[in-house]
Specification:
DNA polymerase, domain 1, TIM Barrel, 11 helices, binds iron/sulfur cluster
Amino acid sequence: MNPLLLDVPPAEWNLPPAEPWREKQLRTWVFERFASSFQEMSNLPVPLRADLAARFRMAAVETVKIQGSADTTRKILWRLGDGSLLESVLIPANPGRDGNRSGRLTLCVSSQVGCAYGCRFCASGLDGWRRNLTAGEIVGQVLGAAKIAGRRPDNLVFMGMGEPLANLPRLRAAMEMLTSPEGLGIGARHLTVSTSGLAPQIEELARVPGQFRLALSLHAGTNETRDKIMPVNRRYPLEKLIPACESFARAKRKMITLEYILIRDLNDSPDEARAVVRHARRLHAKVNLIPYNTVEGLPYERPAEPAIRRFQMVFRDAGVEATVRREKGHDIDAACGQLRLREEKAAFPS
Ligand code: SF4
């Protein structure tokens, strides 16, 4: 299989040396017009298009299915070159009368096929880890989604399938293409990397230039509770994780977000909330509370509304910002990995 154009350094594209403008033309087709084939590139000579098509693949992702929801969130199921399935989610904020066109558009991007981290509540971990995405496949989701939406997303969150920090070298290469003026030119502060808590890689990310943001999937205030739902916590318990996040916050001078999926009778007690308050204060972080989205085949449930309000009240009383995020697209398979899992089960019933 030919490599993806975006996984090959431009110096190796072998464009005609006497025509230095060709690289710029090619980049315009890729990053501004979201071309999915070399054939579309009408201002490139036909022989050059044929030569490029013989050596490279242009589109990293092929659309398998778009699942829309009543609130206009769209979940996109992609197929990669090797047949693997992958998901991204397009999330419009405050869509105007014209649908998605005037409001901000966020894209939730995947970084791996499957995931090795096995968080107990997550669909992506159910099937284990298959492989890392290449940088071109990470960027390809953004380009494919831009083509579907008719415009470039404003914000990117690496929060889809996979643990982005377990694929850090390729994530960094993708972030470079996404932020570079010669690439998509999205401001680094509009990129958020979400991690389950890989402390050494958080420290490494803190040293990477750029004002991008960090979201920590905390999901528990104590090691005791976190150990029950996130195996990664045994390797990087809170006494290692929180100082790593402190280093990031210090290096970037940016507020970290603590993501907290609220699961009934597991991590929704006021005592657990008070433990989270202590971490949030230490990190000067804000907290996103996300009532759990049921995943077929998993035993967890969303807390009742009074328990959600009681949990949030602990933060309010402590003066820590904590919002309840009603997950957009909760009427589609919104928890990461669910749409892919459903499709794979349909294609390969056990
Ligand atoms: S929550 Fe994230 S890190 Fe945990 S299993 Fe799911 S995809 Fe992996």
